[in-house]
Amino acid sequence: MTQGFMRPPIGFGPGSQPDADDQGELDYLAMPSGMRTFEPHYPDVDDPQRIAPARKALRALARLAATWTPGGENLVFHRPPFDAENARVFAQALGEGEVAIRVAGRAPVDIQESVFAGVWRVMPGHDPVGGPSGATTDRVPGGAVGNAIDCTIDSAIDNEIDNAIDSARDDVAGDVTGGRPMDASGQAGEDGNRDRIEREYVEIGLMPTAVLRRQAARIFCSPPAEGGVVNGPHIVSELLEQCEGREQFAEPYAINLSLLPHSPEDLAYLDAALGKGEVTMLSRGYGNCRIESTAIADVWRVRYYNSQDALILDIIEVSAVPDVACAAPEDLADSAVRLQEVSEAMA
To answer: For residue 107, which of 69, 166, 140, 147 has the smallest C-alpha distance?
Structure first.
């Protein structure tokens, strides 16, 4: 008997691979296909004069976006009270971009990124920024928690906004409350400046303030580690260690669950330990990426799916907001130029 004889590994040698005649196909996990690129939206209109308020508001929005600076504050643009046609044109011009966000809680907010990166349509159940009736602009801290801070932009923008308000208010005044302004309670009143009708606004920045000021502060209570739980408690301990004493602009820290041994019981343990936060984001730039905040501040679940909605990457990230959902500063600078081009093309 030959000593030290080793059998050849399975899968090698003649006959281990399918022949061309066998019509064998390589079976592998499909990767995402297709990538979204910028595509301007030019609404179809018969009479350009009828959409003058929407066009002027887009031009004012473009000039406001041009004043945004990296590391600065978010900018908020309250659109004028358009009539139905101008509201439709304004919405069509902005379009729908890659990222959609739902912020739950006491003041729920739906957010949709426009086709212009970093320009967000915010549709609040309750307007967290506030502001008087008509189109106004505010600055809100881009990365801090707090209320909006009023600001004044250059007079050219203010003039164009005022013109848009004047043109639109005459068209819609009779559609709201028979030509009478609304008071804070939603009833017809005498003071038009107290108009508190909830409506959407546009925010300019890398990430909307409603996401940055989310509430995620609970006292951590470790769930019991039942049978089958192996790595779950160690993962949670590592995450808590990263969160403790974390600085505001620290580099993101990620744990790749797709490469880490874990059991179904570990995943259930992680779900129970981390809890569920208020923010859910869907990024559709390349495949689908679902991002969910947890009940622990700065801890996010980030999951990537292929075109068949199969999970291909599962990550737990410690950061203020995952970069995959944020707009890039250079893209936001391009958005200001593109907004101006679209408003001019509508003339």
So the answer is: 147
CA distance 116 to 199: 20
Question: Taking each helix axis from N to C terminus, what angle separates 52-66 and 329-345, rounded to the nearest 10 degrees?
Answer: 150
Which of the 8 DSSP states describes residue 142? B
Q: Of 124, 120, 116, whose CA–CA distance to 340 is shortest?
A: 116
What distance in Å separates the CA atoms of residue 32 and residue 298, rounded to the nearest whole number?
Answer: 27
pLDDT, one tens digit for every residue, the chain (347 residues)? 555 555 655 656 666 666 656 555 655 555 555 555 556 666 666 677 888 999 999 999 999 999 999 988 999 999 888 888 888 899 999 999 999 999 998 888 999 999 999 999 999 874 444 433 344 444 443 333 223 222 322 333 344 444 443 443 333 332 322 222 223 233 333 333 333 334 689 999 999 999 988 765 566 777 888 888 989 999 999 999 998 888 877 899 999 999 999 899 999 999 999 999 999 999 987 678 999 999 998 999 999 998 788 899 999 999 999 999 999 999 999 999 999 999 888 87
Q: How far apart are CA 32 and CA 268, in angstroms?
A: 27
| CA distance linking residue 294 with residue 298, whole number of Å | 8
Q: If DSSP codes are grouped into helix, strand and coil, which group holds residue 91?
A: helix
- Please give the angle made by the CA atoms of 227, 229 and 233, to the nearest 5 degrees: 135
The torsion angle over the Cα atoms of residues 82, 85, 90 and 94, rounded to 10 degrees, is 150
